[in-house]
Amino acid sequence: MSAIKTIATKPYTDQRPGTSGLRKKTRHFQQPRYLENFVQAVFDALRKDTPSGFGGETLVVGGDGRYFNRAAIQTIIRIAAGNGFGRVLVARGGILSTPAMSAVIRRRRAFGGLVLSASHNPGGPDDDFGIKYNVRNGGPAPEAVTEGIFRETRKIERYLIADAPDVDLDRLSSHRLGGTEVVVFDGLTDYTALMRQIFDFEALKAHFRSGFRMLFDAMHGATGPYAHHIFEELLGAAPGSVLNGTPLEDFGGHHPDPNLVHAAGLVRRMAEPNAPDFGAACDADGDRNMIVGRSFFVTPCDSVAVIAEYATALAGVARSLPTSTALDRVAAAQGVPCYETPTGWKYFGSLLDAGLCTICGEESFGTGSDHVREKDGIWAVLSWLSILAKSKKSVAEIVESHWQRFGRSYFQRHDYEKMNSQAATEMLEKLAATLPSLAGRSWGDFVVAHAGDYRYTDPVDHSETPHAGIRILFDGGSRIVLRLSGTGTEGATLRVYFERYEPKNTTSDVDAMLRPLVEIVRELLALRQEPTVIT
Ligand code: G16
Fold first, then answer.
1. Mean pLDDT for all residues in the chain
2. Which atom, in ligand 1's list, is nearest to the CA of 488?
């Protein structure tokens, strides 16, 4: 029998979850009681709405395998036992992708889950770590819950922890910690079963047998085992189709970020003579994805629009504010609504739960559907494989015929990282003050139709999210959106999103097409520096 100890603690003041949980430098997380406080605050916040306690409930735990993942999992198991959870399900090796977490919570009717990840940010003692809580529907905790957690972190005085040895995370097994059963389970099973339900694996197998070739870059994150299993073992992709498939604590020293810069090795191979037909990559926790064809990059905004174009029986679709309006045009053609939410997958949850939306996506390399409540990289790859198998077209042909039908939204995001937080906030406040006077103003052919600070009202629970981003909308459908990132770990990151809609001209250079919009922002913000990253 493990004793439960009550350990006195004091609040940390900086534990407010951001766009996707609490993200900090790893060393910051390794401070005494930092992780313990946060986990206890999660449980204290949840206990308020769980009058019968956690005794009949299951908590799922897993992460993307980054440095400190295993140690953090051991701590969480003990604190969950200290707080009286009936069962704790821990993924073998501590590796569970974010979408797989969502699938496990839903399929096993768990109470919720803790995901240890800083997503696409690098891992290691000097890099990033993160933790987020997912609720019973399998999705990220909504703002009301994360604010409740934050309030608890501000007044915490003690945490409860079982005095027990480490659990062997590498062996499928079951243990008892006091009244808590701890089960180490196979993180692949639930997710694979779900993918088999959604996709026609026989048709995909036949496509690989016919000579179709793919490359998938797991970037040494959590999707490696899923990709080996699903693409190579089950669907018959050639051995070697999965690159960087072994999860590593430091992701091989790279940013596990699926974009043209950080997945450059994959992009290079897709440009070689005799390149495979299809390329894709996922981030560390497997919720982001990048899709490429032979020497052809599919923007995340176009990717979700194409997936929706080929989907049948859509109830509706949704995209975050900064994401291009390519998806809106598909929705209009299919006669279904398109919802525009603030940035953060959590805002899609209530639409998906209410059956208002089937497919959703974000410019930040996130695509998903109502099968789980997280964005899902492997699902996006299987969606593309299904489109390619059915249409027998190349990736480029699919996107180009999409543009011919719907027109093209040229799109880019410019990030200004590590800015002084106060200066960045003031810059946007100053711009916000000038917005009412912008309507009607013109820069060459670009005439402002509307400018304002976006306020979102959830159509289901009517909750309000003010200040979701500044929108400058032009006649003809082009747009500029500005906001501060909610996921950074150092200073502030200003994100500026540019979209130029062209109904006919679909083959021009992206930089050249967006230059006039970039100049408008430089003038409005009196910006002198160059962006640190362009995606
Ligand atoms: C998270 C959220 C996404 C969001 C992205 C960028 O993704 O889940 O919904 O679009 O951050 O957010 P921000 O612009 O505030 O930095 P991930 O993959 O990092 O968990």
1. 96
2. 16
